[in-house]
């Protein structure tokens, strides 16, 4: 179990400590349940009512909430960011691998950096380059000519296809597939002809990719994911998609081919983005958004229909089916009014 003194917490969070610097903590807990030995935080003002009775060894708050606390206080600029840094420091998650297992199959010409660990039954093919401290989990497949940067971790059963480039300090969760074929076919009088996907996937540094997410290789050029992008579980990212720096994409989202997403975009869960469109920087798409056209203005966009009781939803659906008829009738009324005004 990791333990940190409050002095160490202050250093990690760049905060100002009011209290006993020698007190230690070993866990992070919600404010209402925190006990001695725990650190907690206040990022939502509605929970401030719990501060006077909080039993945590230290509470991380903003300056204007310091006087509400009865215990040790760590004043920070952003309590939620401080929480993230403290959890990282206390993290005891085991590594995907801690040595090179004898059952791993590693081609003779693979370039291994220092401190590389490879789990049981992993397969590393010819021409692969693994940077320093790369960790490959059990059962992973790394295809010919792939390159993985320093300090990147792959959990079990990740598949990295040939010639894929994965940057440094990345994290890929189990069963993700990077570099599989894009959905490219020609139709010859009803017969599908597969188009070999000749591009690859280039992923930057500090990128995180969730479990069971698929990222297709490009058809002729590469699929590109820039630095500092976070991708949730079970996404489908099609061939030649380009995702800009610092963007975040929630679970179940589907991005069709050749779509370009700008920097610092946030895509809500279960959204669907059409192919061959561009999303400018700083766009937020709320959950279940259906994006059919390019977006060239920064802002928040929504399209999903909120849940209704079934009886009300049936009425809404019936009205939607009559929209075209209603539009024709409205135009007829407008024309009649115009004729009446002219006469």
From TrEMBL:
Gene3D superfamilies: 1.20.5.170, Hexapeptide repeat proteins (2.160.10.10), MurE/MurF, N-terminal domain (3.40.1390.10). The active site is at 239 (proton acceptor). Pfam families: Hexapep, LpxD. GO terms for biological process: lipid A biosynthetic process. Residues 22-88 form the UDP-3-O-[3-hydroxymyristoyl] glucosamine N-acyltransferase non-repeat region domain. The keyword Transferase applies. The keyword Lipid biosynthesis applies. It is an enzyme of class 2 (transferase). GO terms for molecular function: N-acyltransferase activity; UDP-3-O-[(3R)-3-hydroxyacyl]-glucosamine N-acyltransferase activity. It comes from the Bacteria. Coiled coil: none annotated. Catalyzes the N-acylation of UDP-3-O-acylglucosamine using 3-hydroxyacyl-ACP as the acyl donor. Is involved in the biosynthesis of lipid A, a phosphorylated glycolipid that anchors the lipopolysaccharide to the outer membrane of the cell. Belongs to the transferase hexapeptide repeat family. LpxD subfamily. HAMAP family: LpxD. Homotrimer. This is UDP-3-O-acylglucosamine N-acyltransferase. It comes from Vibrio caribbeanicus ATCC BAA-2122. The lineage of its organism: Bacteria, Pseudomonadati, Pseudomonadota, Gammaproteobacteria, Vibrionales.
């Amino acid at each position: 179990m990791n333990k940190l003194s409050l002095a160490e917490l202050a250093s990690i969070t760049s905060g100002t400590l009011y209290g006993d610097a020698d007190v230690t903590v070993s866990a992070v807990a919600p404010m209402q349940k925190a006990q001695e030995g725990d650190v907690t935080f206040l990022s939502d003002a509605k929970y401030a009512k719990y501060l006077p009775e909080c039993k945590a060894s230290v509470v991380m708050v903003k300056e204007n909430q310091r006087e509400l606390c009865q215990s040790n206080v760590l004043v920070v600029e952003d309590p939620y960011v401080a929480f993230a840094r403290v959890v990282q420091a206390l993290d005891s998650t085991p590594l995907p691998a801690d040595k090179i297992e004898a059952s791993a199959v590693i081609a003779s010409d693979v370039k291994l950096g220092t401190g590389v660990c490879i789990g049981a039954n992993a397969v590393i093919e010819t021409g692969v380059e693994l940077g320093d401290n790369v960790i490959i989990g059990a059962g992973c497949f790394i295809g010919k000519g792939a390159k993985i940067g320093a300090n990147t971790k792959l959990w079990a059963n990740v598949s990295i296809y040939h010639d894929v480039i994965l940057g440094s300090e990345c994290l890929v969760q189990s069963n993700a597939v990077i570099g599989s074929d894009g959905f490219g076919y020609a139709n010859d009088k009803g017969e599908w002809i597969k188009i070999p996907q000749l591009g690859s996937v280039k992923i930057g540094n500090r990128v995180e990719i969730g479990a069971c997410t698929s990222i297709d290789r490009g058809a002729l050029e590469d699929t590109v994911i820039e630095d500092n992008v976070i991708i949730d579980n079970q996404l489908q990212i099609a061939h030649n998609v380009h995702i800009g720096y610092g963007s975040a994409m929630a679970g179940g989202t589907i991005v069709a081919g050749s779509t370009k997403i700008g920097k610092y975009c946030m895509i809500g869960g279960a959204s669907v983005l059409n192919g061959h469109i561009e999303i400018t920087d700083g766009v937020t798409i709320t959950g279940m958004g259906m994006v059919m056209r390019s977006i060239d203005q920064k802002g928040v966009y929504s399209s999903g229909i909120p849940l209704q009781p079934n009886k009300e939803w049936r009425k809404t659906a019936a009205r939607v089916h009559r929209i075209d008829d209603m539009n024709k009738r409205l135009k007829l009324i407008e024309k009649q009014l115009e004729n009446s005004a002219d006469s």
